[in-house]
Structures are given as structure tokens and as C-alpha cells.
Amino acid sequence: MPSSSHSPEPHGPPVAGRGSYAEALRIGEILRKETVGGALLVAAAAIAIIWANSPWSESYFALRNFKVGYEPWHLELSLGAWAADGLLAIFFFLVGLELKREFVAGDLRDPRKAMVPVAAAVGGVVVPALIYVAWNWSDPEARGGWAVPTATDIAFAVAVLAVIGSHLPSALRIFLLTLAVVDDLIAIAIIAFVYTEEIHVPELLLTLIPVAVYTLLAQKFRRFFGLKPAAAWLILLPIGIVAWALLHASGIHATVAGVLLGFAIPVLHSQAGGGPEAGPGLAEIFEHRFRPVSAGFAVPVFAFFSAGVAIGGAGGLASALSDPVAIGIIAGLVLGKPIGILGMTWLMGKLTRARLDASFRWVDLLGISLLAGIGFTVSLLVAELSFGLGTAANDHAKVAVLGASVLAALLAAMVLSTRNRQYRRIEAEERVDANADGIPDVYQDGQK
């Protein structure tokens, strides 16, 4: 079994620890679903790029800019805007569910386990933003895109990890997912507070009504209706759509509504005692129901409408990549992410005497931190919010996000594929027989 590259401290919490067996099973299930979504995401983006640079490119942009909806409700939007504001709200709804699940019933309810990945995620946001701002300091308009290189695309990253890291320790996978979850939380805060230019107070206040009704029904659904939890979405979904529409009309980006509604869903079963092992609640049921919709439709459609950019041949590509905006994004994602994540992980180890989990080494964390440089979905969204759809800066930002994501994936593959081969050779030594209760010994030897 690989050991730490430094002597472990006996009294500190583990850095990126193995976690509980129940958490490992749950994370494994999520990763399998996200792998399929990541493949569809890449395929949709590839189709968009090819179409946008083909002789039929005008039809792609005409489709993306085609408007549908009802203007008096502020809902006459282009198909591209519907994908970003509407479909992506489904993705952020699942983010809200996952965040609440982690902090209520997951391993992150333990502050000792949460502090290191949370700090690492913060470092993975702050350092890329600082790198971008330093590179674009002389241009106030360009500086507005500082948040573009701060996001991690979990679907894309997990798809790469599934291909190259089938034998990596489960603690690494948990660390990656935790990073992405906290990263999403920070991205939500950025979208809500930084990219809201004007707030319409009446619509915002009206939003509180359906959100309150939604929350009450979600929390007390059985008491009010006596129906099975699986049927809850039939009543809650229309109320959620009204809340989304009102928040959109208020000027706040509508994807924030998805997060708020996700937070409102109870995690634990309402009739099972309320403890961490109380059983599935509406959150788990909704996650099973809506994750295929998000990974299989909502996010790929958003990628299709957002990734399409006319590069204009080698000269156009060179021009895009030489833009300080693009350079700042690439440097932020490819360099800033690993520097921030590894730096904060190391610093937390020093401050808290945390030890590296015995199942892997620092080079493995390097590979994971490189993988976190895959921005894509949220980065493309933030680029549109920063520069505006159809602008040259936004097109260059898209080229940079796509290029940086591919480069980060390749660098991570170089590191993790080598490590994966080593773990494959020693997998027989690491694997242990399960006890009579079906739980492997490694999860019962004091590593919680």
C-alpha cells in the first residue's frame, strides 16, 4: 500500500480521508452517473464547435439566437438563453441537493473532515482569479471576467477520471467530488452577488411566496397530503417553475432559484428519527429522478448552445489565444487550480497537523488538482455573464475555456494514468475481504 511522502501526525485529521463506507458507495453511484453525462457533454460541445465552423454556421447561430417566450413576463429569450437560464437551473437544483446532502448527512457534516477539502476548493477559486486579474490588470473591462477560471466541471472531470483512474483510491474520488461541490457553492455565490446588475424588488419579494409554499410542502409533504414522496414532484415542480420565473424577472440569475429550491428539499426521511442513518428523504428521490434529466439533457443542451464559437481558421485561433482574456483564463485553470488546491491542502496540513491519507500520495492530489482545471459548463456560463453573448471577448473566453479544459484533462491524464497503473499492480494487496455484514474491513479499522 502506498504510504505518505511524509510522516503522518498521529493526532490530526486526515487530508482527503477515505470517508465512511456508506459515503463511498454513494459517491461511486454519483460518479457512474456523471461519467455518462460527461460523455454527452463532450459530444454536444464537439457538435457545436464543428457546426459553428462549418459552411452551415449561420444556421447554428440562427438557431441559438431564435427567440421564444412571453415578453411581459421577461421570458422572451433566445434558445441559448433558455438553456443557460432555464435548463441549467435543473443542474443547479441538483447542486443544491448535493450541497445539503453533504452538510446534513454526508461526511462533510463533520467539520474535521470538511475543513481541508473546503479550504482546498477556496484556494482553487482564489488563486485562478488572482492570476487572471494580474494578467488583465490594465484593462478594466477584461478584469470583469475574473470569475471565469474559478469553476470546475464535475461531469467533464469525472468522465476523464473514469477513463484513466479506474484503480485510484476511493478517497481521491471523494476528494474530487467534494472539491467540485464546494466549488459549485462558491460559483453560485459569485453569480448571485457579482453578476446581478439590477434588482427589481417587487418581483424579488413575490419570489418569496412560492419559495415559502414550496419549502413548507416539501418539509411537511406527508402530513399535508399523505402521498408517497415519489409523487411530490408533481406538486412541487409547478410551484418551483413559478419561483424560477419570478426570480428571473427580479434580475437575479435564474439558476440561483434551482439552488434555493434544492436547499428546501429535506434530506432525511421525515418519519425515521432524524439521525444520519434515518433513511432516504425527498432529496435522494429527487436526485434519482432529475439527475438523468440534468446529465442527459439539460447540461448537454447548454453545452451545445454555449460551446459553439466561430474560430475562423488558424489565424482566428491564434488571435483568440493571444488575447489577454484567453491567456488569463488558460493560466488560471491550468496553473491556478493546482497551485491553489495543493497550496491550501499543504497549508491546512501545517496549521491543523492533518496527515495525508495512507491510501495515496501527494502526486495523486496533483493529478486531481489538475483535473479540477477542467472548467467548461460553469466557466462558459460565467463568460457569457461577464462579457455578453456574441461579443469578441466572450468568443475568446470560450476558446480559452475549451482549450484549457482539454489541456488540463491531458495533463491530469499523464499523471493519473501512471499512478493508476501502479495502483492496479497493488490492488490485490489493498483489497480486503468483507466481513459478514458486507462492509470491507478498511472501513471498520478506525478510518472514518
Automatic annotation (TrEMBL):
GO molecular function, a single term = sodium:proton antiporter activity
Its name, as the record gives it, is Na(+)/H(+) antiporter NhaA
Per its UniProt record, what NCBIfam families does this chain match? NhaA
Task: Tell me what gene encodes this.
Answer: nhaA
Question: TM segments?
Answer: 35-53, 73-95, 116-135, 147-168, 175-195, 201-218, 230-247, 253-272, 293-319, 325-348, 360-387, 399-416
A Gene Ontology BP annotation from the UniProt entry = regulation of pH
Q: Does the UniProt entry include the keyword GTP-binding?
A: no
Question: Chief localization class?
Answer: membrane
Q: Function of this protein?
A: Na(+)/H(+) antiporter that extrudes sodium in exchange for external protons.
Family from the record: Belongs to the NhaA Na(+)/H(+) (TC 2.A.33) antiporter family.
One Gene Ontology cellular component annotation held by this UniProt entry: plasma membrane
